[in-house]
Amino acid sequence: MDFPHNPSTNSPSSSSSTSSSTAHHPPPSTTTDNDPMHSWWESVSKQRSRILSLSSLLPSDGLTLSSLADSDRPALSLLSSPAAYSLISSALSSPSSGSGSDPLCQWLYETFQSSDPHLRLLVLSFLPLLSGIYLSRIHSSDSSSLPSLAGFEAVLLAVYSSEAKSRSGKPLLVQIPDLSQPSLYHTPRNKPVNDRSRQSVGVLSPPLEPHLAVKSTKRAIIVGTALDCYYKQVSQMPAWSKLEFCKFAAAWAGQDCPCRTKFDADDHDHNENGNGNSNGHDRFFREDSRFSNGTRNRDDDDVDDEDDVIKDVVVEMDNLGINKEDAENLEKKGVRIPLPWELLRPVVTILGHCLFGPSNSQDVKDAASVAIRCLYARASHDLAPQAILALQSLIRLDKSARAAAKAAAAAAANTSSNANTPSKAKKPEILLVSK
Predict the structure, then answer these.
(1) Which segments show compositional bias classed as Basic and acidic residues (predicted)?
(2) CA atoms of 433 and 435, how far apart (whole Å)
């Protein structure tokens, strides 16, 4: 590479002239760097440039993205646009997407490298769709004939590297509560002892190692770490992004397990019988005659009953007050994939937000409710104790929240009906006074 040459020589005259010239010119002012209006305009210009470049990559309807680029908040406008989501989703879902030469993957990669937080948020919003398509193709039956997915992997590695840099080589830790110490919710029976050595610390995620490629042995930790980065911004994600995630999570669990509704049925029997020792997980294999020792016995009749599995799910979701269309649509995304804890942990964490986030729509909550039941059935057959405990807690909280909401709605309906019912006029009271 050629570097520019300095025309000055080493003579005293040239050095003196140079020093004198620099002495008469003060350093440039930095007021523009501290001007918030200048920073805002620079951010908007950068967002418009990236969105206009995106419009040139999509096959049609580029005018939609161009109009979004002219808004005051281009990235956020694109984030909340259903038409833009449909365009990008179709491009990412095409059979030829995800290769190393895919221009859309290159756009996502370069946009995430930007320092603008809104542009990075825009890329993260498509992470559920991108990771869902990537994992489904990798673990599909005909994965050997698929083209290279280097484009998808480049985006995942960019997000992984960003998260690894933010952690600075440190693990994610959590303080495990010590019941011997008082808290807001309890007072220990014995006198508490201030012994710091008894404090327990759990490791949510080990220190992240740098990776230059996605290897099969590191795929789960790379995708899981990318989902951790998504979870940090999940409260700002649009509803369509969370719905995509819930649909893929349900499909990753597998579509041929009829026991995903057993938990709700067991709780129903538990309430009717009044037996406090009943456990939904313990009764999975006993009540379903199509499972033996955790392995499904596929007879000819079982193959004919595959459609009945989805019907059972839809009926159970209807009993919980969940939209039937959401339960049916969840059966159409992705394929069954391996679910190690490195990948399942962030999935369960995100689903917990989708269930109980105060700003989430009812569609997102219903889709998450279906997904956690699918994952609970999968964890029960995989005998994954961490996943079983976490998902069982989410299901119980979901059921109690829905029961409370249903009771509140019924009480409100009774109150309104009582208010509209005319009341009979009371007869005037007659007081008898004796003389």
Answers:
(1) 280-290
(2) 7
pLDDT tens digits along 70-117? 888 899 999 998 888 999 999 999 988 999 999 999 999 999 999 899
CB 252 within 8 A of CB 235: no
How far, in Å, CA of 100 to CA of 152, rounded?
8
Tokens of 82: 């259903």
For 366, how many CA atoms within 13 A lie in the half-sphere containing its CB? 20
Q: Specify the amino acid at residue 57.
A: L
Phi, psi of 134 (to 5 degrees): -60, -50
With cut-offs at 50, 70 and 90, classify the pLDDT of residue 267.
low
Mean pLDDT of 124-153: 88
Sign of CA dihedral 117, 118, 123, 128: positive
Average pLDDT, the chain: 77
Q: Tell me the three state secondary structure of residue 338.
A: coil
Q: Are 157 and 214 in contact (CB under 8 A)?
A: yes
CA distance linking residue 406 with residue 402, whole number of Å = 6
CA gap 194, 208 in Å, rounded: 33
CB 134 within 8 A of CB 216: no
Arithmetic mean of pLDDT, 258-264: 58
CA angle 409, 411, 412 (to 5 degrees): 65
Token readout for 241 is 């992004």
